[in-house]
Amino acid sequence: MKNNEQAIRRIVIVGGGTAGWMSAAPLSQVFGTQPGGPANPVGCEIVLVESPEIGTVGVGEATLPSIRYYNDMLELDNADFMRKTQASFKLGIEFKDWGHVGNRFFHGFGGFGPPIVNRSSVAHWLRLNRAGGMPSYEEWSVATVMARRNRFALPEAGAPSAANAYSYAFHFDAGLYAAYLRDYAMARGVKREEGTIVDVSVRPGDGFVTAVTLADGRRIEGDLFIDCSGFRALLIEGVCKAGYHDWTHWLPCDSAQAVPCDKTLPLTPHTTSTAHSAGWQWRIPLQHRTGNGHVYCSGHISDDEASRVLMQNLDSAPQGDLRQLRFKTGLRKRIWEKNVVAVGLSSGFLEPLESTSLSLIIHGISALVELFPDKRCEPHLVDEYNRKMTRQYESIRDFIILHYKETRRDDSEFWRYCAAMPIPDTLAHQIESFRRNGRVVILDRDSFGEDSWLSLFLGLGMQPQGLDPLLKQVDEPTLREHFKRLHMAISRTVDGMPDHAAYLDRLVGVR
Ligand code: FAD
């Protein structure tokens, strides 16, 4: 970084939840000290303030494959990280009772393998499927086949094959993960201040934040403030008044209850989401326990009834008390405003149906590093950041709404509302595109690619009316032979993989 007087000299991270420490760790890599290296080589300090009195939201156990790129960027040791965070592998999400009661489908990470001729394999599969006689699309997703059989092995290096045509993520204890990253960041020079912020100073004129003051009078000055204060949004809303797009008319769930229970076997390498009458329930298997939660719409079910539904759908005895959470789904109108960048729950909230929050934190911090400003926080950087992040939020929002909108459930007021509700134009176009000829529109490195959208469309029982007009007509017997061989290769590969729990035991040592 250029050593000039406009360079950022001090970054203050407000909040020590998952977002705070996930922000601190890569910033400490860019600006901090290497353990054993010279002190603060670029002259930019990083301070993180957290309040033990306020605490953290304490949930967030399921992730997307982007977490691996994040961990790799930090050069974390996989086995050590998994041991210390009680992690398990995740190949996707099993959906139960979504679409209609009794329905079961899987959103696996990675799909049909490389394109055939000029179009994706899925497009060719859709053509054969229309003609009939094809096994379900799930049987060509290696991740889905592995998950259905509780198998796991890391993808093999080398040419594309069934042994590497899948991706994976992790389930982990969010508190342990934040602590793991805290040790990482502090070893690289991040300073941690404990205390509750009671006052914020701004510069007269441009309104840039200059310092936060703690309850005991300590004052912490900075040039750039990363607001990781959770739903409180202390700086981005409390000071900058960024505003909020409320999306509850599209995603009406506003409450959650969470409770862990004793672990059970088999250790499934996937999250489970089961739809209920006014929301849905998650099941997340970790090494030491299973995380559970019921996300629901308080306008359609009471808290007491919601907890009764949650408790009667646990695998085993609950551990500890049930936690009640409230939220408002939506997005901050400006996620970066002046010299305040919101990362984590302070930037917006989408229910955890597709485990997207930590992935949005990764997007947020990566975009900040890419567009890193000087003290002026010039508008072109700020606007580009807001554009990128808004696009990410909106594409995930649409993906989540689709789960609710395309339902044939009419067993409750909640599902009748979801089936009838208006949807964003962007999602309406996506549905229309798929209905017409099985195509999916992907923009701007969206979080969910073609395979994900298709697993959802097909899993919910939707079928395209026509075919992709750019599909080159490979002759049908050749195509059928290709898919038959792929199917056999997937079965053979998965047959040779160990049980998930056995694989994990070998990797992390005795549990
Ligand atoms: P928090 O954890 O709330 O941390 C806020 C921090 O700010 C705390 O350290 C607090 O002390 C500090 N703070 C606040 N005010 C002050 C103050 N005045 N002074 C000093 N410090 C202050 N995400 C996923 O990716 N996967 C999931 O499966 C998932 N499940 C979820 C389930 C539910 C029900 C909910 C609500 C969320 C879920 N999430 C999930 C989201 C995930 O939990 C969050 O994105 C993640 O924990 C980040 O939270 P955070 O750090 O922004 O906020």
Automatic annotation (TrEMBL):
SUPFAM superfamilies linked: FAD/NAD(P)-binding domain
Gene3D superfamilies: FAD/NAD(P)-binding domain (3.50.50.60)
EC annotation from Swiss-Prot or TrEMBL: 1.14.19.-
GO molecular function list: oxidoreductase activity
Keywords, in A-Z order: Oxidoreductase
InterPro entries noted in UniProt: FAD/NAD-bd_sf, Flavin-dep_Halogenase_NPB, Flavin_halogenase, Trp_halogen
Listed Pfam families: Trp_halogenase
Highest taxon of source: Bacteria
PANTHER family documented for this protein: FAD-BINDING PROTEIN, FLAVIN-DEPENDENT TRYPTOPHAN HALOGENASE
Protein name according to UniProt: Tryptophan halogenase family protein
